[in-house]
């Protein structure tokens, strides 16, 4: 029987027909449906989807034009890949996924859809890898199919969210419920002695005094909980509501501050109603309890392994041809700094100023503050006896003509003092060297016949489009992978208001890459 496809509605009668036709062709219903939609898009006379063509060719963009022409036949708009499906938006009310608002996560529906489209749904012996595991959507959906799954995650927020999933499998729901019920008798005016929120500079004034006082009383209550698992979930509930009860909102690269914070703001902002901490945490605990009572019997714990650390250091240590499938979404080359976006949560977890600086440098380079990891990675490969392997990565990076074209243009703009930040060329260079390493390592750890599925966005700096999808796909070919498809979202991403004012509007591709190891 064809795998159930949950990412789009189909009338019952037509779904039965689609299932029959997909079985007759040896495909899943998801694969056949996607192929039919791709054909429909390509045959329409009045296309409302993005026109897949390179920007107007100029002498300065010749390498990017050639790269586009090389992959043009594999670029295809997939009407099913809406921005809601690809983003966290679809997970806000889904059990377990709703425990922590993690904007960088993709939806479980997207993961199910992609699994279905790879024609692997009937195989129960697969091993899936997500080297940028985040809060574990790819891992949980693989586990739901009784596949093995391995994740690598560095950001403490993601690590704690993954730990919460393990704890959720083994905690006693009745013991947890009794602890939640005991919370009714808490004295919210009795704080934990000596406790203050461990602020860093960026989080100062994030909470009202009343909010911090209630948080302190809640943590005093936690000290009396004997069960380690119950205490962790109660602590994690506190972590998960920090943004909700604060004067901040995550907004792209930064925290956006509400007028009530008392900070001097360049532009007024009102985030709306801010609930008392005691109400917010009780509501979150009610979600936890409802989800625990409907859990799936420990499947996640039995099938999933999580490695805490940087995939740049962990991937080279993994055995060759270990995984059947990689499904991931790395940080984008967009200057987003997770140590700032998640500063409240990181500070609550105990990260001080020095810890945040170290973490920022350890994460995949995506900010203008990142320094090159080239010497460090070269030394790691030498220590592993794999210096030649890293040499091949460096060669692919240095010989990627479209990337070097962009870097040359950005460096020239920096010399003319035209860049908004002089470190932008270094950001782009560091990002792609590290992603070249990731791509080569994924090709190495993938079994023959296995797939890499990656979600990523293109970016634009100083008016120059950086075709991330094509550059990374070229790295994939250099690493021995076949680029099967570059699915483009029907609605792309607009460039920033600053770039739009100077360079005009240009819609940038948001893509899902599908690569295969022959």
Describe this structure in words.
With 518 residues, the chain is α/β, with parallel strands linked by helices. Helix content is 45%, strand content 12%. It has 22 helices and twelve strands. The chain has helices at residues 12-24, 29-43, 62-71, 83-86, 108-117, 137-144, 156-170, 173-182, 209-222, 228-240, 277-292, 299-303, 311-314, 338-341, 343-348, 353-362, 374-383, 387-398, 401-415, 424-445, 468-478, 497-503, and strands spanning 75-77, 127-130, 148-153, 248-251, 254-257, 304-308, 323-328, 446-457, 459-461, 464-466, 482-488, 510-516. It has an eight-stranded mixed beta sheet with strand order 1-11-12-8-7-2-3-6, with helices on both faces. A hairpin with a 2-residue loop joins strand 9 and strand 10. Helix 9 (209-222) packs antiparallel against helix 10. It starts with 11 loop residues before the first helix and ends with a strand.
């Amino acid at each position: 029987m064809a795998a159930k496809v949950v990412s789009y509605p189909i009338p019952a009668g037509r779904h039965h027909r689609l299932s029959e036709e997909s079985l007759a062709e040896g495909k899943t219903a998801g694969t056949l449906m996607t192929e039919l939609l791709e054909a429909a898009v390509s045959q329409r006379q009045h296309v409302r989807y993005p026109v897949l063509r390179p920007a107007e060719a100029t002498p300065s963009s010749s390498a990017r034009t050639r790269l586009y022409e090389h992959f043009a036949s594999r670029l295809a708009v997939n009407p099913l890949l809406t921005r809601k499906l690809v983003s966290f938006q679809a997970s806000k009310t889904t059990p377990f996924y709703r425990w922590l608002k993690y904007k960088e996560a993709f939806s479980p529906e997207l993961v199910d859809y992609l699994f279905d489209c790879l024609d692997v749904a009937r195989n129960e012996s697969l091993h899936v890898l997500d080297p940028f595991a985040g809060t574990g959507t790819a891992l949980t959906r693989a586990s739901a199919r009784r596949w093995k799954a391995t994740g690598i995650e560095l950001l403490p927020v993601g690590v704690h969210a993954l730990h919460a999933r393990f704890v959720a499998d083994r905690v006693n729901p009745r013991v947890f419920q009794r602890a939640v019920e005991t919370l009714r008798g808490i004295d919210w005016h009795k704080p934990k002695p000596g406790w203050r929120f461990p602020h860093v500079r960026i989080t100062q004034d994030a909470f009202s005094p009343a909010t911090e006082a209630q948080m302190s009383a809640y943590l005093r209550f936690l000290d009396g909980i004997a069960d380690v698992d119950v205490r962790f979930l109660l602590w994690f509930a506190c972590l998960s509501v920090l943004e909700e009860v604060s004067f901040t909102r995550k907004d792209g690269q930064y925290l956006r501050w509400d007028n009530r914070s008392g900070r001097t703001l360049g532009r007024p902002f009102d985030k709306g109603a801010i609930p008392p901490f005691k109400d917010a945490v009780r509501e979150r605990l009610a979600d936890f309890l409802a989800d625990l009572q409907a859990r799936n019997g420990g499947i996640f714990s039995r099938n999933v392994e999580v490695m805490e650390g940087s995939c740049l250091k962990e991937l080279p240590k993994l055995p060759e041809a270990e995984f059947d499938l990689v499904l991931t979404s790395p940080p984008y080359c967009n200057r987003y700094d997770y140590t700032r976006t998640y500063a409240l949560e990181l500070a609550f977890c105990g990260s001080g100023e020095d810890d945040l600086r170290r973490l920022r440098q350890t994460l995949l380079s995506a900010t203008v503050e990142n320094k090159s990891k080239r010497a460090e990675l070269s030394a790691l490969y030498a220590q592993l006896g794999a210096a030649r392997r890293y040499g091949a990565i460096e060669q692919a990076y240095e010989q990627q003509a479209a990337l070097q074209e962009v870097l040359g243009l950005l460096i020239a703009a920096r010399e003319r003092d035209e860049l908004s930040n002089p470190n932008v060329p270094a950001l782009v260079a560091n990002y792609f060297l590290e992603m070249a390493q990731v791509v080569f390592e994924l090709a190495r750890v993938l079994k023959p016949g296995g797939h890499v599925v990656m979600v990523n966005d293109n970016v634009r700096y100083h008016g120059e489009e950086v075709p991330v999808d094509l550059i990374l796909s070229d790295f994939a070919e250099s690493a021995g992978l076949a680029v099967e498809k570059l699915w483009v979202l029907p609605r792309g991403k607009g460039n920033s208001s600053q770039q739009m004012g100077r360079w005009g509007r240009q819609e940038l591709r948001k893509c899902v890459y599908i690569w295969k190891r022959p």
